[in-house]
Amino acid sequence: MKENLLTGNLLKLTMKYGGPSILTMWIFSLYTIVDGIFIGKFLGSKSLAAVNIVMPYINFSFALGIMVAIGSSTMISIQLGANNYKLAKKIYSLSIQLFVILGGLLSLGGIFFSKYIVVFLGANDLLLKDSSEYLFYLSFFTLFYLLSYGLECFVRIEGKQNYSLICILGGALMNILLDYILIVEYNMGIKGAGIATGVAQLTTSVMLFLVLYYKGEKLKYKYTKLKRSIVINILYNGSSEFLTEITTGIVLLAFNIYIMKFIGNEGVSAFSIIGYISTLVTMTMIGFSQGIQPIISFNYGAKNYKRVFNILKLSLFIILGLGILFYSLVNIFSHDLVVIFAEMGINILISSYFTAIENAFMSCILSILRGLIFINLLLYVLPKIFLTKGIWMSSSINEFITILFSIYLFNRSLYKEKNI
Question: With contact defined as beta carbons under 8 Å apart, do 74 and 219 qualify?
Fold first, then answer.
């Protein structure tokens, strides 16, 4: 693997690592979309709105998994590039233990405090019962939300992208099958949707674990006493990806609040449908950016800086191409979408680049600006001026402002690296 990442054709490597990662993220998105189709068709708009209320909590769970997964996988790739295999295995083992600890705590919170959580997330009296029931049953499987993404990252580090894709696809097919059985055949309602999604995540996690156990060559789990310095580095290096994902949940929460205020329950339900398109685009950009992270980190660990910059330049062209592709697929909407998609992709790619070279501080700044500060200011101001139209305008303006900061910080980083 070392020779391949250090000397292999960049376009082929980018497609080999980025392509399956995009497909994997699409399949992760399919979980939500499939649930939405079954719930919308067989349970109605109220249940669909209830699921959307719970989504920020799911985003938070997923964000913790991403933080540990990206933080540790970046460190592991850099150590492998530096030929430090012993430390790489130690980081891997500690990350598995962190998944179990964090997943267990989240499960307990969702099981015992489901009603309090959904009220905090914006559920009104009409949505309280369905949203709390969905969260309660889903919480029994929260650990596997963390593990499914984390183990998938480790399988990619092993260079077995096709295996990871098969595992994620297996979970998605299980989700479709169980949605049909539990919602349609057994009429279990919103409870059935939660169980179906949870069991699907369990299926994916088990399959990925078996791949690592039987096919893994460099990453072997061995119980390791928690070492504070390594744990802190894992969490710090993955903090920007955590913020990127958690701010997605915060943005969703903010949109839910403003839509509920200006439009009502039907507006939240409609926003769920719009959110599926946005999620697909976002997951594509995130999937590609995170897919190429092992290549960047490995070469960075080997001090092959020129190759790192060449990978990044190639990736920027691919991101622009993806923006044009999505524009072509959804051109029935505004012509501005190509700009929004391209800007979003560049923002995510630059943030992932900073993570890949262990510059989590810069990555965190971009995540906070994009997902917390700008979007919430825009959501507060624009609806006061343009009413409901202001809600929809806020996203595109947010991406445009953020990209200006992204380019500025990226240019500063390049200048410093060239001087080094």
Answer: no
